[in-house]
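WP5 quarterly update. Target: Glycoside hydrolase family 92 protein. Source organism: Duganella vulcania. Length: 774 aa.
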Amino acid sequence: MFANKMLAAGALALASILPATAAEPSSPAAAVDVFIGTGGDGHTFPGAARPFGMIQLSPDTQVRPFRQSYPWAAGYRYEDDSILGFSHTHFSGTGHSDLGDLLLMPYSGETKLEPGYPERPFSGYRSRFRHQDEHAEPGYYAVKLMDNEVDVELTASERVGLHRYRYAKGAAAKVILDLRSSIYDYKAKNLWSRLRVRDNTLITGMRETRGWAAGRQLYFAVAFSHPLTSRALRNMEADIEYKGFAGPGSGPGDKAMVEGKALVGALDFGVPADGQLEVKVAISAVSEEGAIANLGEMPGWDFDAERAKASAAWNEALGAVAIDAAPDMRKMVYTALYHSMLAPSLFMDRDGRYRGPDNEVHQAQGFRFHSTFSLWDTYRALHPLLTLIQPEQRNVDFVRSLIESQKVSPYGILPVWQFHGLETWCMIGYHAVPVIADAYMKGLKGFDADEALKAMTSSAEYGPYGGLQHYMKLGYVPIDLEPEAASKTVEYAFDDWTIARMAEKMGRKDIAARYYKRAQNYRNSFDTKTGFLRAKKSDGTFREPFDPVLSNFGSDYTEGSAWQYSWYMPHDNAGLIKMLGGDAALQNKIDMMFDAKVDEKVYAHMEDISGLIGHYAHGNEPSHHVAYLYNFAGAPWKTQQRLTQVVASQYNTTPAGLSGNDDLGQMSAWLTFTALGFYPVAPGSNEYVIGRPFLDKAVLNLPNGKVFTIRSVGLSAQNIYVSGVTLNGKPLAQTFLRHDQITAGGELVFTMSSKPDTAWGKGAAARPYTQTAY
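Structure tokens (predicted):
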């Protein structure tokens, strides 16, 4: 068989079908390993996309059954050995399975309309593959399909995915188009779908689903480089097949349009003279006509040129940071930067139309609408990173997208967890608020601050959401009236503080005073007797019995235990220190958290609690700032020690190189900041807490044209401690950097040592921002 010949040829055959690598060997894009995170719990995908692109075209290796959807949240797992097709929308690093829209699978030979089973080769249209026959880099993916007798290459513009298929000599070029796609249960999820044959080189359609976001509509247009010779469209649910040639009415049983919940098309293009077929797929939030218009973003059929454009786009975006480091560290950090630039993703047609949270079509004026906001995760480090290194207009687009969504929200609030314009209500808090406030505090222009502040307070005062009516009345969320009450109380308090910060800068003293007061509500759920954050009942008593290790979905905490959540008052760490009993008490308690001997079974029932070091869970976001808290207690050397431990154990260059879900780039943004040597513990403070660097040198090419250089002197595996820091040649006494110190340009130099400097940063004046005075 041809497949067996291909298998024997191995990687050499794959290399022969690929053009020269688009990314120059020394370029940032060449340093990225897109397979990091595709195994373990990272949930990333290896396919082709542009920075923040609408199309994210990637292989899917498994039909995602409902009870096993978590491992395949991104559609692809590195440990799988077969591919069922290539779909055009994906999440990068989420803990929830959705998308996987419009799956295409090229093949030759017998037509099979079901994907089949991984353990049974040739049982369906899926095909086995080998990793040595697979290649990927930013903006490009290629693989040899062993059973389907096709070599596949993928690339993308912002709204268009481009496929190139190479078939065996003399073989018919065939493609399966499956609108059931890689979802776990199309009968439960697909509300309706449509396939429409426009002519013998163009098919359009749509799919409406009720998955994570109910009523989501996606439209598409598929163009082919060769005309169809025949095709069969089948509604698998009704077991009806429509056969015929390309044009409407061209043969018995032919039909130009088919509708239903389970549509599959088998498309035949005959035997191309060059053995090659290219396919362009554009998507739209608005209509089939919008998708057709979006195809105009990629005129012509020059695959290699489009691949080069994608590579150039990634090199430009990644070039915001020039990295000099040991090879593995350089690879990890550039890959982290890459993963931090996949979302929020564009979700707007070329004419500016988009679909909002009211599921209606709107027109963007002066900005580009983006969606896919995993805000509970990304407000912590991803958005501060993008605010620092991405062009101002891109960040304005993010902020405007949030504000415009609030205007048409059926509830009048900012997005909570939004994708494809629609709300999912996933996670807690009103964390669009710190994203907007942090951007405003750092001087971002291009949006109406009064309009933004109104949207922020509307979200913070919408009583029906997440127990807010009780929070506003009692000063905490009561556990007998609302689940996850302890977590909601402290996260609301932080969001409130960011409103106060922005209102104060705007001169709105009345709003600032009200929200600074609300920001202290975290104290109402902190039990000073036990030293833990606890859920409190509406009668003012803490819920009993109490176990600081207990974690369950819908319990006192959100994806965590008291050990992970008792540090969550990042705007007021001095207040935490006072409640615990002083600097030494905070240091000792963090030490206890990291050094605890924890049976892995304790958190085994919680998929998201991963990357454990004692009770510290780096694989989930509530722990991400904790290692930096030693700075607030005058012991930055302990922060340096813990960061060394975290990076060494939680990140590597293998497919399992992320210890938890990347969550649209938050895990990656944490590594990027930490490798540079500082981290935004409290977005909105305009300060970055200094840790320790992991790079020999990094140059930030800032959006304002300035350059900020970070150098490490004496960095090695043994020299993990900072013995001195200078900023522009002058010793830095503070253990933090201000945002304006970075954006002014200059040079930050770390001198590293094998021994800790226990004196640096010990005094109160050296410590980072906190709301409570020392």
